[in-house]
Amino acid sequence: MVKRQKEKQYQSTVEHRLNAQIRSGRLNSSSTRPLPFNCCALTLTPFTQPVCCYINNNNSSSSNDNSTNENYGIIFENSAVIPYLLKHKHNPVSGTPMSSRDIITLNMDKNEETNQWQCPILNKPFMNHSKIVAIKHGSEANVYLFEAVQTLNFKAKNYVDLISGFKFDKKKDVILLQDPENVNLNKTRDIQNFVHTKVLRDERQQGSSSNSNIKMSVSASRVMDKLKQKEEIRLKEKLKKRKASSENEANDQKDTEKKKTKILTSDLGITLTTGKTTGSFTSTSMPQYRGEDVEHNDAREATQEEILQSQFLTMKSLKKKGYVRVTTNLGTMDIELHCDIAPRTCTNFIGLCEKGEYDNTTFHRSIRNFMIQGGSRKSGSSSKNKDNPESTETSLWGEPFPDEFDDRLKHVGPGCVSMANAGPGTNKRQFFITFKSAPHLDRKHSIFGRVIKGLDVLRVMENSPTDKKDRPRQEITILNVKVYLNPVTQAEKIESKKIRKRKEERESERQERKASALGQTTSVRVPVINEGDTSSVLSSQSKSSKTHTHKVGIYIKQQGNVKKRDIDEANSDSVIPSRLPQPPKKTTFGDFSGW
Fold it and tell me: Fewer Cβ in 10 A, N or C end of the chain?
């Protein structure tokens, strides 16, 4: 008993090389895609009434070369090829002149159970790897496997049709319909070499590039011309506004940097001081500062990173997603952004989208069954930057920003949007969208979104052919990116409110400190005292006394202090006497002088 071989769980070297060639598009130039035997060469669909025609001139009387004694034939659907010949009057495959008189009707046997065409002698089905011939007699031909004709006709030198009994000529009446080992026939039967497919391809390219073939009336053409003029004027005005706004923004940024109010760490809820007081304790090169020197012990100015960190914490607490729509020349895709999980990466992406940095950019790298990468800005006319698109790239803040990893986000399934980088902490502006799961990229690339609508557009991108460097042969362009929901602006508003509130509190505290130093009375907010409740007043007074322990004038008697004795006298009438016994009085021994 023969032992069955198990299925391979790996790819051989030849298979791996072949798949790489298919993925990069290099296989198309060296290999062919022959038409399946049961399909019509014109409609590219299975035929029901097969007919045949010659695709070379070996059947003519002028061909007497023994090296080309094979006649090649191609199969069509009868109902499809006749209207084509009446209109174009040439062969759809080779482009040579042809008429309906050159059509040969094929008599083929069909298995009713399997619904497959088969050889009437051997009862074997016609497969794509079979060698198939047709024996012509008049305007008809019977189709056989070459195995049957070779055994019963050629070897026996019996040149009589196996079904009809008519005599035939081996050189003129034998038509080769399919032979996988015949290179010339396979090139002729290659779908890419068909004349009618080339014509359709050229027409589509011309139609997509220009609409000059559309005939319009005089009034319609005038209306279209006016619309074009208005669109050109609108685009010019838009460009002018962009230039003016960019110049104004640059000037405003310079002015605001000069006049910008400082944001301290205390405004962000961080207790970090300037460090001058502590530094003077350990360094002899710094002047000595004490606790009374408040201005040297205040909170220091917050850095840009600390301000961003506070904003990102607010975005996480909002727990809101962002939504953008990416419009390409192949269709539109809606992307959901994880602003609550990867706030830094989403802020960078949304900021670049609102600035229009991704408009008119291209996807410069596409690998089938892996991902498509884009977002790089066109580097201009310099030849140095064309080969390296990352040379002119920057993030929203001008510098690379660190990665953001979270176990809730993984490269699972198609449509996962992630940042492209050149190593840890090198994220800028390029991103990629996966075609399938890529778990080996987890915790190496920051995931910040997912395609929720437009996966069919992603499949079209995946199927687009590429060159040896994985660049799409047909340019895939991002026309524009529109932001529909932006949690970043909401977080910025919340942060600005918090900072403004803390600044007001700091200013009021500074005014109180100044008034207490000058011995002036400040407007103290007197709390409402309930009957028998003096703890709130005492606690507020103790807090106020604690806050002013390090200020100037702490030993001056304050006029606004409220004593416990005064509160007891004020509330003596309203207090109900307790039924419990009085606590014992505390006694002290002193220094034993009375013994």
Answer: N
**DSSP string spanning 8-54?**
PSS--HHHHHHHHHHHHTTHHHH---BPPTTB-TTT-SB-SSEEEEE
Helix H, strand E, coil C: the string for 385-420 is: HHCCHHHHCCCCCCCCECCCCCCCCCCCCCCEEEEC
Catalytic residue status for 435:
no
Closest by alpha carbon to 39, among 71, 80, 70? 80
Provide φ and ψ at 372, rounded to 5°. -130, 135
The reply to whether 194 belongs to the active site is no
Q: Which residues have CB under 8 Å from 469's CB, separation 6+?
A: none
Residue type, 111: N
Task: Tell me the C-alpha distance between 57 and 96, whole Å.
Answer: 10
Tokens of 281: 């304790």
pLDDT of residue 1 exceeding 90: no
For residues 152 and 521, give the distance between their C-alpha atoms in angstroms, rounded to a whole number: 126
Determine if residue 44 is left, alpha or beta; phi over 0 gives left, psi from -120 to 50 gives alpha, anything else beta: left
Mean pLDDT for the chain overall: 78
Q: How far apart are CA 364 and CA 386, in angstroms?
A: 11
**Backbone dihedral angles phi then psi of residue 123, each to the nearest 5 degrees:** 55, 35
pLDDT digits (tens, 9 = 90+) for 378-420: 654 333 344 444 446 789 888 999 999 999 999 999 999 999 9
Question: Residue 135: which of 91, 165, 94, 98 has the closest Cα?
Answer: 165
Do 279 and 288 meet the contact criterion of CB atoms below 8 Å apart? Answer: no
Q: Could you tell me how far CA 315 lies from the centroid of its own chain?
A: 22
Residue 496 pLDDT grade (very low, low, confident, very high; cuts 50, 70, 90): confident
Residue 327: strand pairing partners: 332, 480
Which of 37, 146, 432, 435 is the catalytic position? 432
pLDDT at 524 over 90: no
Rounded CA separation 374/479 (Å):
12
5 is catalytic: no
Contact between 69 and 56 (Cβ < 8 Å): no
- Write the CB contacts of 199 (distance below 8 Å, at least 6 apart in sequence): none
Tokens of 522: 């400040």
Q: 276: part of which helix (H) or strand (E)?
A: helix 276-282
Per-residue tokens: 96: 């040579």
DSSP-derived pairing of the beta strands 447-453 and 416-419: antiparallel
Residue pair 406/384 in contact by the 8 Å Cβ criterion: no
- Catalytically annotated residue among 338, 344, 364, 365: 365
Determine the Cα–Cα distance for residues 19 and 457; give it in Å rounded to an integer.
23
For this structure, is 421 an active site residue? yes
